[in-house]
Write a structure and sequence with these properties.
globular, 28% helix, single chain, 2 helices, 6 strands, 103 residues, 6-stranded antiparallel beta sheet, alpha+beta
């Protein structure tokens, strides 16, 4: 059975369906600059309309990309706090899941 709303996939092949804030924290914590450099979260469907990605930066920290074609959003930011990243992504994704369930 797939994810109910969205899934998180890392470069090393790890996948978590409908990840919690804690699960995102763990996935981001596992990133490194050699063989597991990014995590992508998106709806578990063909041709998803939004996604978020977190990638390790060479100089330290993380680049976060949030894109939602239905809202014409494309934002790129950086962060050094995994706590803040996991919390912000959870809130951002929840807003998309709720809006997609509304008529």
């Amino acid at each position: 059975m797939g994810a109910r709303y969205y899934g998180a996939d890392s470069e090393n092949g790890d996948r978590i369906d409908d990840p919690s804030e804690d699960a995102l924290f763990m996935m981001i914590s596992d990133l490194n600059d050699s063989d597991n450099t990014f995590v992508v979260v998106q709806p578990d469907e063909d041709d998803p309309v939004w996604f978020a990605s977190v990638a390790v930066l060479d100089e330290g920290g993380y680049e976060v990309v949030r894109c939602d074609t239905t809202r014409n959003e494309h934002e790129v930011t950086t962060s050094t706090s995994i706590n803040d990243l996991a919390r912000d992504l959870t809130i951002w994704m929840a807003a998309r899941s709720i809006s997609s369930r509304q008529p």
